[in-house]
């Protein structure tokens, strides 16, 4: 990666899980919020990410905001309050109505054919 520290920080802030970043030269102390970003130090400089030394084998960052929503500071974990829990509806009334309606029409048609054949 080539650029000023500010440019590199901007690129790292936009990095997503699965992205790989190689630092080619220079000393950097970075704070990476996104998890799953691979960072490798390919130069002679001293590179640290989230207070961990980075060498030529690299590191994969961990999500620093795994349990918090950075915009609100609230937890993204699902709540288990009884008010929030809803039972799934196991009855599909629309499809049952369609099924019974089709069966009824088929039965009426069959009776009309039988009546016509034996009349």
Task: Give a structural overview.
By secondary structure, this protein is an alpha/beta fold. The protein has helices at residues 5-13, 93-118, and strands spanning 20-23, 28-30, 38-41, 47-49, 52-54, 59-60. The chain has a three-stranded mixed sheet with strand order 1-3-6, with no helix packed on it. Strands 2-4-5 form a three-stranded mixed sheet, with no helix packed on it. β4 and β5 form a beta hairpin. The longest helix has 26 residues, at 93-118. It is rod-shaped, with a radius of gyration of 31 Å.
Please write out the topology:
Elements: H1 5-13, E1 20-23, E2 28-30, E3 38-41, E4 47-49, E5 52-54, E6 59-60, H2 93-118
Parallel strand pairs: 1-3, 2-4
Antiparallel strand pairs: 3-6, 4-5
Quick description:
The chain is of the alpha/beta class. The chain contains 2 helices and 6 strands, in the order αββββββα.
Query: N- to C-terminal separation?
Result: 89 Å
Number of helices: 2
Largest sheet: 3 strands, mixed
Strand content: 15-25%
Taking all Cα atoms into account, the compactness measure Rg is 31 Å
Question: Can you tell me the residue ranges where pLDDT is under 50 for at least 5 consecutive residues?
Answer: 66-75
User: What best-fitting shape do the alpha-carbon axes yield?
Assistant: rod-shaped
Q: What's the mean pLDDT score?
A: 75
Q: SSE order in H/E notation?
A: HEEEEEEH
Helix share, percent: 25-40%
Please identify the structural class as seen in this structure: alpha/beta
Q: Report strand order across the widest sheet.
A: 1-3-6
**Number of DSSP strands?**
6
């Amino acid at each position: 990666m080539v650029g000023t520290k500010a440019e590199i920080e901007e690129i790292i802030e936009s990095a997503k899980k699965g992205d790989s970043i190689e630092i080619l030269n220079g000393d950097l102390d970075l704070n990476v919020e996104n998890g799953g970003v691979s960072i490798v130090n390919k130069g002679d400089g001293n590179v640290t990410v989230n207070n961990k030394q980075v060498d030529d084998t690299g590191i994969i960052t961990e999500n620093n905001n795994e349990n918090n929503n950075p915009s609100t500071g609230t937890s993204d974990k699902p709540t288990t309050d009884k008010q929030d829990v809803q039972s799934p509806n196991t009855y599909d009334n629309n499809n049952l109505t369609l099924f019974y309606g089709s069966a009824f029409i088929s039965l009426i048609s069959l009776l009309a054919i039988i009546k016509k054949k034996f009349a």
